[in-house]
Amino acid sequence: MTEIRIDEARLVGWATRAIETPSFTGSEQGMAELAAQTFAEMGLQVQWQEVETGRANVLGTRPGTGGGPSLMFNGHMDTSYSGREAWLAHVPGFQPSAFVEGGRLYGLGISNMKGALACYVEALRALEDAGVRLRGDVLIAAVSGEIEKAQWGDAQGAEFRGYAAGTRHLVTHGGVADMCILGEPTESKLVLGHFGSLWLRLSTQGDFIHTAFSVGKRDRNSILRMRDVLNAALEWIAIWEGDPANAYRGTSAVVNVGGIEGGFGWRASRTPHRTDLFLDLRVPPDVEMAEAKREALEFGR
After folding, report:
1. pLDDT tens for residues 117-151?
2. Rounded distance between C-alpha atoms, residue 261 and residue 271, angstroms
3. In this structure, what DSSP letter does residue 160 have?
4. How would residue 189 be classed by pLDDT, with cut points 50, 70 and 90?
């Protein structure tokens, strides 16, 4: 039996380079260049996919000998944070600077999910070192724009174009395989099915009134009207999460109250004309998204 060995120093070395290559959502180009250079040095067939200016996917393929299924390792290059957030400046590990402590490697994006990309690279290097040829192709897809975010209101631009933007481009431009492994952080648990996500916006309307003329008109304040909507939402969430039909393999559905937006912090002398509440519904893989959407919209009305 052929022995396949992982080179820890090589693994940590590449992971360190990945950490120290900033790749906040919308600015993944540097990380894509590192992936492309690495894949080429490994002798992989490299496909550069321009998603948009300054953002690319990189697909590396190790051809098989033929007759076997293909396997893709897929991982996103963008990080949840940029390293410039003031509230994270004092937190070790949230900057693009790698360090080892207690036998663990820390740094921006290593958990989600540059560590997985590093493992993919080392796995293929170990196969090559051992001279192992598989029948099927093995692909590594380093993709842009996965972090959960979407353009909304004033939040416009590439930094808000996440949520599988890169992988959608990947699969429509030839990046497909028979099977796929995602090295997302899952508490080291093997996950065979992922919940989908459905974002819901609930809005209340009101009048735009100056403080001086708001006496006796609180019932026309969109923020205060949202209180009743939020209470109703919490009741509906309990029903959604408690429905056995929305559970999958022992895991219950979950809904997050993700945001509320209304009013003007810089102009508190006005009653806001509109307030929005944002929910994130996680939909089990055996529930049709259209059905989940129908239920959500039915509640929203």
Report:
1. 999 999 999 999 999 999 999 999 999 999 988 88
2. 13
3. G
4. confident
Tokens 């051992």 identify what position?
Answer: 130
Q: Are β-strands 71-76 and 55-62 bridged in parallel, bridged antiparallel, or unpaired?
A: unpaired
Asked if residue 88 has pLDDT above 80, the reply is: yes
Work out the mean pLDDT of the chain and round it to a whole number.
94
Q: How far apart are CA 113 and CA 116, in angstroms?
A: 5
Neighbours of 225 (CB within 10 A): 18
Please answer whether residues 30 and 21 qualify as being in contact, where contact means their C-beta atoms are separated by less than 8 angstroms: yes
277 CB-side CA count, 13 A: 23
Which domains can be identified in the chain, with CATH numbers? 8-182 (3.40.630.10), 196-300 (3.30.70.360)
Backbone angles phi, psi at 101, to 5 degrees: -150, 125
Token pair of 111, please?
Answer: 């958990």
Q: Is the pLDDT of residue 300 over 90?
A: no
Strand order in the sheet with 255-262: 196-205, 274-283, 255-262
Which residue has better confidence, 300 or 50?
Answer: 50
Residue 104: pLDDT band (50, 70, 90) is: very high
Helix H or strand E encompassing 31: helix 29-41
Contacts of 70 (CB under 8 A, 6+ apart): 64, 136, 137, 138, 139, 177, 178, 179
Residue 116 corresponds to which amino acid? A
Please tell me whether residue 97 adopts helix, strand or coil conformation. Answer: coil
| Tens digits of residue pLDDT in 251-273 | 899 999 999 999 988 999 999 99
Sign of the alpha-carbon dihedral angle for 221, 301, 260, 231: positive
Is 1 a residue whose pLDDT tops 80?
A: no
Q: List beta partners, residue 196.
A: 283
Q: Outline where DSSP puts E strands in 238-291.
A: 255-262, 270-271, 274-283
Q: Which residues of 2-35 are buried (b: 16+ CB within 10 A; e: fewer)?
A: eeeeeeeeebeebbbbbbebbbbbbbbbebbebb
